[in-house]
Amino acid sequence: MGIHLSAIHYVYLVFIVFILALLIRRRDTTMICVAGIFALGLLATTTVTGSVSGIFNSFIYATKELMGTIMIISIIVAMSRILIITGINEMMVAPLTRFLRTPALAYWGIGLIMMVTSFFFWPSPAVALVGAVLLPVAVRVGLPALGAAMAMNLFGHGIALSGDYIIQGAPKLTADAAGLPVSSVMQASVPLVIVMGLVTTVTAFWMMRRDQKNGTWRDGLVTGKGPADLAASGADEAAPVYMSAGLRKGLAIAIPLLFLLDVICMFVLNLQGGDATALVGGTAVLILIVTTLLAHRNQGLEKTTSYLIEGFVFGFKVFGPVIPIAAFFYLGDSAFTALYGNALPDGSHGIVNDLGVALAEHVPLNGAVGAVTLTVIGAITGLDGSGFSGISLAGSIAQMFAAAINSGAATLTALGQVAAIWVGGGTLIPWALIPAAAICGVSPFELARRNLKPVLLGLAAMTVAAMFLI
After folding, report:
1. What's the pLDDT tens digit per position in 78-136?
2. Given a cut of 90, is residue 69 above it in pLDDT?
3. Exposed/middle/buried for 215, CB within 10 Å: 0-12, 13-18, 19+?
4. For this UniProt entry, which segments traverse the membrane (predicted)?
5. Can you give the residue range of the structural domain that contains 286?
6. Residue 163 and which of 246, 265, 301, 411 are 20 to 30 A apart at CA?
7. Is residue 419 part of a domain?
8. Number of domains the chain is built from
9. Which 3-state string (H, E, C) describes 45-114?
10. For residues 343 and 336, is the Cβ–Cβ distance under 8 A?
11. pLDDT (tens digit, 9 = 90+) per residue, 369-411?
């Protein structure tokens, strides 16, 4: 393919290594990300003023890209606040307590419900729906908020999103790039998704139970008033609001029905991704307003604003340390061209994609090496945090490898797809797994650390499985 790597590519790669090393050592990465943005800007513009301006501009770019997620989390937190204060939340979750009686049942129950929901309209809206309803039950029976976040994250952004069997956005992208029917890629991905999912979720659960017994478990709670904080504290600090039992019961029935109606609308109107999230967010705002007016009556107008402010404070407090790392990883894809124009060599498809192509060009081709290489390429392209930006690249490289070894096109394509989405779709890159972390009120960095070993073991097991399937 003849991709020429420039100094910009190598500097980006060096900073990725630094960032991953700091994450493993449980250190903050903000400063190194800002340094990386400055260095890339200096190479792209060759001026100090251009690179300094690039820091701010990259923050703006990342904030714009993340704003939808920030908004949905903030609104759900605001809505959860009034539901918990009024006791409506208690009535909503009461029927579920009979099923989620132990931490183990809560972990697997939340995970499976999250997986099924995510299959139908993707994980980000599913996190908001599942987290707001089931998190208080899980916390009450002894599952840590971080454990609930792991379950939602691994089953939703991992298993469901990497297979994407209902909406089929991911397999269509990879299949088109590899010149294969979508059905063949989906069939080839089934055993890979099963192996990856089983190894990852079982390992994560076992490590959580082991660390709790050994006293080395860290809850990773962040300061703020997210649903997890309120559920754990019983909302003791909140001033109780009187609402009749009949009204509470009516709202406890109506609110889940409204969200169920959202799900039905997503099917009927074919709403996906951002459109589905917007529908859930708008519904949450209306629920917040109506519930606040019924609960506070004459003070309802002012209290609505107060709850929204609390939600936004929580949302931006969680996203604050994440924006710099998001800004850096976005430079690996579309942000670099948007900010610096044609600073990359001719024929470049973005820093991350160029690195993936260069890796594919410098490895010997056989089934085993092809499987390892597609997994690594998928993981590398996932480092920009979207999970989807590099899967077309994985499909095209899988086609090239399959032509060289005369077999395994669908398996290699599915392998690259699953690896890219598990890494970048929201289980390892801290800013990509924000929805699950924020709705549970835990640190996204701590969630990423908890996921790291299970996901790496899952990737290894899936790669070995793929070697036998090629």
Report:
1. 888 888 788 887 787 677 767 888 999 999 999 998 898 888 767 876 787 788 778 88
2. no
3. exposed
4. 6-24, 31-60, 66-84, 104-121, 127-143, 150-168, 188-208, 251-270, 276-295, 307-331, 368-388, 400-422, 428-445, 452-469
5. 68-163+223-320
6. 265
7. no
8. 1
9. HCCHHHHHHHHHHHHHHHHHHHHHHHHHHHHHHHHHHHHHHHCHHHHHHHHHCCCCCCHHHHHHHHHHHH
10. yes
11. 889 988 988 888 787 676 776 687 788 778 777 876 777 889 9
